[in-house]
Every structure is written in C-alpha cells, then in structure tokens.
Specification:
Layout (H helix, E strand, L loop, with lengths): L1 H42 L7 E7 L1 E23 L5 E6 L6 E2 L4 E5 L2 H36 L5 H34 L1 E3 L4 E3 L9 E2 L8 E16 L3 H6 L8 E5 L6 E15 L4 E8 L11 E18 L4 E3 L2 E7 L5 E5 L1 E6 L2 E6 L6 E5 L10 E4 L10 H13 L3
Parallel strand pairs: 1-20
Antiparallel strand pairs: 1-19, 2-9, 2-13, 3-5, 3-8, 4-7, 5-6, 7-9, 9-12, 10-11, 10-13, 11-12, 13-18, 14-15, 15-16, 15-19, 17-18
Amino acid sequence: MFKRLIFGIIGALVLLIAWWSCHHSASSEQSGSTGSAAGSGRRGGFGGGSVPVVAGKVEQKDMPIYLDGLGTVQAFYTVTVHTRVDGELDKVLFTEGQKVKTGDLLAVVDPRPYQAALDQAIGKKAQDEAQLANAKLALGRNTDLLNKKVIDQQDFDTSKYSMAQFQAAVQADQAAIESAQTNLDYTQIKSPIDGRTGVRIVDPGNIVHAADANGIVVITQMQPISVVFTLPEQKIQSILNAGGASGGLKVLALDRDNTATLDEGSLAVVDNEIDQTTGTVKLKATFPNKDLKLWPGKFVNARLVLATQKNATVIPSSVVQRGPQGTYAYLIKPDKTVEMRPIKVAQTEGNLTLVEDGLSPGEQVVVDGQYKLQPGAHVELTSPQPSKQAQPAQVRQHTQKVARSGKP
C-alpha cells in the first residue's frame, strides 16, 4: 500500500514536469516569432526605409508685389437729371439703359407758355424801341431850339432824360427776351454728361417742377469708372515710396472669388487722411471699363501692384509648412535625407510663394508627402500622382460604370 502511494506521487510529479516543459517551449516560440515580427516592422515604415515624397526646386523669377483690399465700384460721374422749368412733361425721348452723349435730347416740357412769354418780351422791346426813336428825334429838335434860344433849359433836359429812360427800357426788354429764351431752351432737357440712363422716374403727361426731388432719370458715366478701396495705414509709406501719391501705379480689379481679372486700371488718388476707426486709408483707382465688367455698387477685390521684385526666390506654395516656431520647409540634402529649414515668407500668390530668407535658388524641397517626414529621414523621390481630372476619359467612364454596377 505504501509503495503504491509512492509510485502515484512520483507519476504525478513526472506528469507535472512534462506539462511545464511543453508549456514553456510553446511560450518561447511565440515570443520569438513576435519579436521577429516586431523587428521586421521596425525595419520598414517610419523606423527605417525611405519615405516616398514629391520634390521640387527653389526657383528664381520676377515676382510682383501686391497689396490687396476690398473695393466698391463707383460711377465716374452720377447726375440726376431735373427739369429747370415747370410744366407738363410732353415727351420722353430716351430708352431706359440707353447710352447717351453730352447734349442728347432726353425729354421735352410743354414749350407753349414759354414761347408766348418770349413773343411778349419781343413785342415789348419793339414798342420801347419805337418810343426811344421818337425820343431821339425830339431831343435833336430841342437841341436846335435851345441853341436858338427858343426853348429854355428845363424843356431840353426833360427831352434828354426821356430818351435815356427809353434806352433803359429797351435794355430791360432785351434782358427779358434773353430770360424768356433761356426758359424756352430749358423745356428741352438734354444730357449733361456721357453715360448710361437708368430707370425712368417720371412718365410723360405728369406735371414736373424744378423743385422736384426725384428728377426724371439718373445718368451714370461708366467709361471710365472708379473703384474705391482701403488698405491698412501701415502700407501708406510703401505706396508713397513707390510714387503712389502722384498716381499711376497699376491696379487690378478681380471678382469676389479672386479667380478672374475684370479690368486693369491705375491708381488715381490716395486720400488725405486715415480713418481712425478702422486704421485704414482710402484709395481710388480709375479703370477704362471697355467691356462694362465693372458696375456701380459692385464689390470687387482690388490689387495694387506696388512693385515687381526682380530675380525673386520662389517655391511652390505647398512647400510651406507651419509649426510652433513659424514657417518652415523640408530641404532635401544630397544624401537624400531631409532637413527642417526655417523660412521667411513675404507673399503667396496662387501656387507660388515668395521667400525672403531661408532658401537659395537650385535647392530641392519637398512639395508633397511632408506629413510622413521627420528631420533626418531618408526620402525616395517620386512623380506626382495624377489628379482625378487628369485621368483619361475612358478610365473615368470605366470607374463610374464599376461604381454603379458594383462589379469589376
């Protein structure tokens, strides 16, 4: 009995030892395989190997320096056409939206009362001229009689001043004729400027007055036209140094999306004071507006061409990265490693960025793929991936067909 107990204990120990040996061996193999896989992972990806990037070169070219501001288009001249005499609006001879020139007949006020006044003034003058002629004859006779001592001095003076009175009456009649003629001319309402008519305010048949507030029509001169825009007060000195005080600097008018140039003009005026509320200065530019792309009241983006920097250092805009220490770029060194190079950006224009400091022409920089990089990382130069729009039409059609069917 005792021997059986001893043999049982020994057997249990043997089984326990065998189980432990098998379990320890399996754990070691699993750890070894995991370590091998981890080591393999460290040798690829971020820990080792080369990171694919798209490279570009720092170039040297002429780069315009712009100052951008929000502007409003204003008509060069705006005139509200009023009648200068009272009466019935007899005719309207313009069409709404019509181009007119200075002196073109726009409307006619009933001229009959003013023609009658002119005729009356002419008749009055003729009457006074006849009396003046009679007074001159009387004065001539009285002069002879005075020399012969037939009449006294008092009668002579009476005839003399009577003639002077009729002379003054004739002059007053002439003034009345000119006034009546002017009023008659005012019945024909003419355009005071070259421009474009707006919506008609008064219809024919209405009684119009010189004191009416609304007028008959508004004419705006649109060729040339003006754009008023603002810039920060810090830019005033740069504008003055470039000769902006005397005008002549080139100004571009762009649409609200900054995608299309509507017209090119020149700076005309720099305002003589700074708006203390906004800290800006007002500028005015003149545009020929030949294609009528600028319309009064329209908002545009005004770009003042301050100067053109010759042989400027430029890079693609996607090269510029921003971090806690400011802007930087990844520079590709000859050994195909990258360096984080701090740069100073002067201006970004479309896909090009003007660099003031930090890069030299001819150096290679990373254009795409920066998010995978760290300083000192090895890179592999690749070509840019074609955009979706650049794919052939057949490829796009096949892709769309597969997406609709769900089958390759």
